[in-house]
Amino acid sequence: MCTDPSDSAKPRRDATQAIHLGRTPFANSGFVNPPVYRGSTVLFPTLEALKTRSQPYTYGRRATPTTTALTDALAELEGGFMTILTGSGLQAVTTALLAFVEAGDSILMVDTVYQPTRKFCDTMLKHLGVTTRYYDPRIGAGIADLIEPNTRLVFTESPGSQTFEMQDIPAIAKVTHEKGIWLLMDNTWASPLYFKPFAHGVDVSIHAATKYIVGHADAMLGVVTGNPRAAPHLDRAKEALGTSPGSEETYLALRGLRTLDVRLARHHQSGVLMAEWLADRPEVHRVMHPALPSDPGHEIWTRDYLGASGLFGFVLNPVSEKALAAFVDNLELFGMGYSWGGYESLILPFDPRSYRTATPWTEKGTALRMHIGLEDVEDLKLDLEKGFARMKDAG
Ligand SMILES: *Cc1c(COP(=O)(O)O)cnc(C)c1O
Predict the structure, then answer these.
(1) Does the beta carbon of 188 sit less than 6 angstroms from any atom of ligand 1?
(2) CATH number (domain holding residue 269)
(3) Which one of 49, 59, 308, 371 is separated from 300 by 20 to 30 angstroms, measured CA to CA?
(4) Burial label, 337 (beta-carbon count in 10 A; 0-12, 13-18, 19+)
(5) Can you give the CATH number for the domain in which 40 is found?
(6) Atom of ligand 1 nearest to the CA of 221
(7) Are residues 242 and 264 in the same domain?
(8) Which of 197, 231, 258 is the last residue of a domain?
(9) How far apart are CA 36 and CA 220, in angstroms?
């Protein structure tokens, strides 16, 4: 709490904001954390109040003090105007897309997008009469050549899912602003701390809060934040679609937010150490991590990002399926499974050949995605080292 007015004029830094935003202890009998409001019905004291809906809360689906604590905090942290919550990260993506398109529209979708986003475009959006055209993540200002009269929006995700190509968001934003179309971004990788989408020209930012914001692999939640122009569209979509996150999940995201800054610092540090270590291993063909100076996206990452999260990829030199299984099957610290952003380390093989359409994937060796958790990185290296030895033995 500021008492000196010269102090209050200074913008607080993110580490402080993540701790203090969305909390009003003395409105809750002094308790540090807000209570979990569970509710559907909200009572109106008078006919007048019912008719004018003049009170802050009117129905559980619309908002509760618990959801407002999180949406206020995230909107401010990301530099946006208004935030809505959804039941999952994927629902954040689909709600955001449905907020802006209508039959006859076309959208430009990055080829390296999270695969279920792609599936939504190729099925539901297609059936609703919206066509999707996929583009190369490294297109930059070249996106201008793909924009047609019915192009309604450009969707970006940087770095790309699984293969970690960086997108030149400011260059794309310049084009979308000139053409008067929307720019959406899935900003999950960086979290609200390491990339500031609205300062770089994005209209709508999307997060799978399931990942770093919740941060403990114990809840599913999505977040969509818009600038003032996008906000009414998001609000309408939220109302029409009835997106309504669970109270417990919302609370877990609020709790996760309080430690996001320190967790990300460790994910960043250990992720880079591991990426460098892997780049020197004879078993590894190449590492895909924008914080490595050798990475094609390094310049953009350095220019636009405030840090790196713990998620990156690498390609093995070709090995047999048996050898690959010997590597991943008996790891002691790395788990194999979907999602990421929790405190634990994960590893997952993937093959983009089966679905990418705008950018060919020509690597011969197996690609793996790795999430570096909060364990000691030396222990993680040892686990992988033993795995590489098993891989060699299995031939
Ligand atoms: C995981 C993920 C999503 C979807 O989030 P869920 O909460 O699992 O539905 C969306 N975008 C990206 C980039 C993701 O990694």
Answers:
(1) yes
(2) 3.90.1150.10
(3) 371
(4) exposed
(5) 3.40.640.10
(6) 7
(7) no
(8) 258
(9) 16
- Same domain for 227 and 276? no
Q: Of 187, 312, 339, which is best to mutate to test ligand 1, by the most ligand atoms within 8 angstroms of its C-beta?
A: 339
What is the CA(298)–ligand 1 centre distance, in A? 24
pLDDT in tens, the chain (395 residues): 444 445 566 789 999 999 999 999 999 999 999 999 999 999 999 999 999 999 999 999 999 999 999 999 999 999 999 999 999 999 999 999 999 999 999 999 999 999 999 999 999 999 999 999 999 999 999 999 999 999 999 999 999 999 999 999 999 999 999 999 999 999 999 999 999 999 999 999 999 999 999 999 999 999 999 999 999 999 999 999 999 999 999 999 999 999 999 999 999 999 999 999 999 999 999 999 999 999 999 999 999 999 999 999 999 999 999 999 999 999 999 999 999 999 999 999 999 998 999 999 999 999 999 999 999 999 999 999 999 999 999 98
Cα–Cα distance for residue pair 223/76, rounded to 1 Å:
13
Structural domain range at position 232: 11-258
Q: Are residues 240 and 186 in the same domain?
A: yes
Give residues with Cβ within 8 angstroms of 26, minimum separation 6.
none
Name the nearest CA neighbour of 312 among 345, 356, 263, 354.
Answer: 345
208 lines ligand 1 (CB under 6 A): yes
SS3 state at 381: helix
Tell me which residue has its CA closest to atom 8 in ligand 1.
Answer: 89
Q: Is 1 domain-assigned? A: no
Nearest to 334 by CA among 366, 382, 302: 382
Cα(114) to centroid of ligand 1, in Å? 7
Distance from Cα 365 to the centre of ligand 1, integer Å: 26
How many domains does one find in the chain? Answer: 2
Distance 121 CA to ligand 1 centre (A): 15
Mind telling me the catalytic residues?
61, 114, 186, 211
Do 38 and 179 fall into the same domain? yes
Residue 2 within a domain: no
86 lines ligand 1 (CB under 6 A): no
Return the amino acid letter for 7: D
